[in-house]
Amino acid sequence: PAEGTVAFISLPPSLHTSFPPNSSSQVQFQFYGVPELFQVILFHSEEGKVLNTYVVAASVINSEQSIRDMKVPVVVMMHHLITNTHHRDVQCVYWNFIENGGLGGWSPSGCWTHNTTPEYTTCMCDHLTHFGVLLDILRTPIDGKNEKVLTLITYTGCGVSSFFLGVTVLTYSLLEKLRCDYPSQILLNLSFALLGLNLVFLVNSWLSSFGLTALCVAVATIQHYFLLASFIWMLLEAVNMYFAIIKVFNSYVPSYILKFCCIGWGVPLLVCCMVLVVKPDSYGLLPLANSEMFCWVSEDVVFYVCVVGVVGVVLLVNISVFLMVLLQMRRACLSEHSGVMKELRGITSLTLLLGLTWSAAFLTWGDARIPLLYMFSVLNSLQGFLIFVFQCLMKENVRKQWRVHLCFGRFTLQEYSEWSHTPPMINKPKHTPMLTFPTAASVRSNKSNSTQSSSASSQCTEQHFSGKRPDLGVVYQQSFILPR
């Protein structure tokens, strides 16, 4: 066939034996340039496969019976709509009009694959009918009805989530006193990573519609980067908690938050660059059930190693760290209403939310696939909103900063002491006292006298601290070090 051919049929010379005697016969060829005409039934009957070619047909007009069981097969070569770069399984099929109660469906009977390349598949069939090639994909599209509902939930939820994540990022970026401790700085980076992930997702399908390979690779790479960054920052949040509570008395880490930023943003960048260098075709187009395309990780090995593997490791490490922290809290006999316990519950809730969200995504197989996809869509939509609730609305110092800045200074932080819930004393001077951290030895000797303290976010006041220990999360040090 000539270059650029999308479909080619070669009929065997023996076909004339099937013509009616003493009459002229005509062979009719039909070409369908709209694959969607055959897609609706396909997704109900052939789970895991998509039609990857145009449909071409051949028939003898005045033949008294259908032509089948030919000794010399018909050769059909068709161009792939989606380049089969990763050599997924293909299947030569024909359209059987009596399948599915007369609605029609694809059947492989009497057809087999002769040869396949990333661009073309050559089929052989022993009968004349409508021919096509199915492409088997592991991340199977879903039927059109559920696709529309899930799309509505996902895009609406991601839009709402992006709004609340944006409010959280702006709050902690513009109000300097809210980000003077390490947990708040980690939260700011995590929120920014999730915001980037949601925004790229919202424009992914639109950008993929341009059909530009370079643009699609860039979009898929950026989305992969923000996904990895989100989970790495969740891991770093757990690591910070471990350093602050488990190793608080004997850990010194210079340039602490700078190193966290190098890990949180550098490791995902390194992974994405390695994928682009080692397997540059790992990012590309993936088909959706409504014939739309989506830019994402198209290579199965890369997907399971660099997405599923990374997420799985992060979740396991986070669960282990939280169990260790809970044991340490229990030994310290902290009240359930202490600031540290509130912080722990908030961080644990966010980790469980992320974990459940992506666990549902990775388990979307078999009969439970559709419910798990709904679960994934709903949980993914709630991430930004719950971060806003836990880290803004439920934090007293954030609400105080809002009152101060949104009310144009009519309130002052001096009226809301972060160190005591008692009313301010009129006769006492209003300057901030100097607080000195005790030494590790004195802490050990007086550990039993340590009492409940305020939450992590309440550390960012205008107080001055003396002592050379770096801030490994002042929130957690308060509960173990600061005397009342």
From TrEMBL:
Full protein name: Adhesion G-protein coupled receptor G4-like
Gene3D superfamilies, per the entry: 2.60.220.50, Rhodopsin 7-helix transmembrane proteins (1.20.1070.10)
InterPro entries: GAIN_B, GAIN_dom_sf, GPCR_2-like_7TM, GPCR_2_secretin-like, GPS
Keyword check for Transmembrane: yes
Organism of provenance: Silurus asotus
Keywords: Disulfide bond, Membrane, Receptor, Transmembrane, Transmembrane helix
Matching PANTHER family: ADHESION G-PROTEIN COUPLED RECEPTOR (PTHR12011), ADHESION G-PROTEIN COUPLED RECEPTOR G4 (PTHR12011:SF277)
Amino acid composition bias (Low complexity), ranges on this chain: 445-458
Subcellular location: Membrane
TM ranges: 152-175, 187-206, 212-236, 256-278, 301-327, 347-366, 372-393
Superkingdom of origin organism: Eukaryota
Positions of region (Disordered): 445-466
Biological process, per Gene Ontology: adenylate cyclase-activating G protein-coupled receptor signaling pathway; cell surface receptor signaling pathway
